[in-house]
Sequence to fold (485 residues):
Amino acid sequence: MKRKVGLALATLLVFTMSLFAGSTKVSADDNSLQKVKEAGVLKVATSPDYPPFESEATIKGKKQDVGLDIDVAKQIADDLGVKLEIKNMDFGSVLAAIQTGKADIAIAALSPTAERRQSVDFSNIYYTGGQTFLINKKDVAKYKTAKSLHGKKIGAQTGSLQNTLAQKYFEDSAVSSMDKNPDLIFALQNQKIDAVGLEKPVAQAYVAHNKNLAMIDAGYEDDADESGKAIAAPKGSSSLIMAINQSIDKITKNKLTDQYLKAAGEHLDEGAEDNSMLKYWKDFYNGFLNTSLIALLAVIFGIMLGILLVLMKLSAWKLLSWPATAYIEIVRGTPMMVQVLLVYFGLGAVFNLSALVAGTIAVALNSAAYVAEIIRGGINSLDKGQTEAAKSIGLSKVDTMRFVILPQAFKNIWPSLGNEFISVLKESSIVSIIGVTDLIYQLNVVRANTYRAVAPIVVVMVIYFLMTFTLTRVLNYFERKMNNA
Fold:
């Protein structure tokens, strides 16, 4: 499947969440199905960058999730008599979403591997498509069968089932891994690799929309229980799994997956008719708005919290200085991605935060630690005579800090703060992993929908450059004003 790293990530998040809310225990009396029906909503976690299983399409002017998996989810919700709520996020987060209560089930072309079964429960298999290799069409005569790929360069998505199978059956080949399939296809077209391992429906979609590609059967000894697609639910959700299996039986009996794949193909064909970047200007515009909003709020609250942290750290009271020092060291010593996931799945599980709110809080908390150190450096750079002069005219410690120290410190550290603002603008892109529709999220969706690897990247790169260039000019203007004051 896509990324087995989701298992490790989910395990880490569940452990971390226990620090906030205590250990989660499964009740002896399973009420998973009852909870869904009482809520009247089936919350489904998915990753809409994997057509034809799940992707986004504009239907009647409105953005909607489409694909085989989405239609399966709709059928399950209909059978349960509840509404369907799709929660889009990075694939590595879908299992964590169901384990932390953000979603009831995960349906994202998941393969029920033995490793994943240790963390979640799976439904029956609802689809098995088989494994293939995507090659350049000009190499069809060269690579007639998968056996011809022995000793060649094979690409596969990081942590995917295809990656595992390639390493198992092609030990004499160099297996390269990348996070996104469009990157692998681009590498294939540029002859960096000789073939890409993909599931059959995904490979068929690429071939249908790119005349320069072809596919050959992988020839693996396929294990349906491992390579088939199933729906994940939290451990102990036997009643919900049973209800889902009833819907899967109906889907299998009526051969609905064929209809679902046909409908998904039609959506992809509609998108392929005009895959110019202008068609997706609304997607990029919405991504720009969300990125700007997150960066602005993160900077404002980051400065406020940063000032508080530095005052605490400089305090003579260890009860204040120690927590501030610990906070700064922990935040600066851990990746922002981990912090975003912790806020969304940990803190967010307690307060039910939306992805946008959780992402903004995480970026602000991260920025505050760096701002605090920048301000501390500015304060320490001032001559001690400033403090002594303030005391001599009768100013209290608070007034000295407020009217003498901080204004001068901010003037000295403005260039460093400006760099931090620009870093926040760029690094906030990490919030896309929890489903915030920022520029990077829209980039991945557009790449998946258009089967174009480079053009969407160029568009987003230009947007980021214009944003940072404009911000730099604004910061330089205020720096000149302060220097002339």
User: Anything to note?
Assistant: Residues 281-313 form the longest helix (33 residues). The chain is about 60% helix and 15% strand.
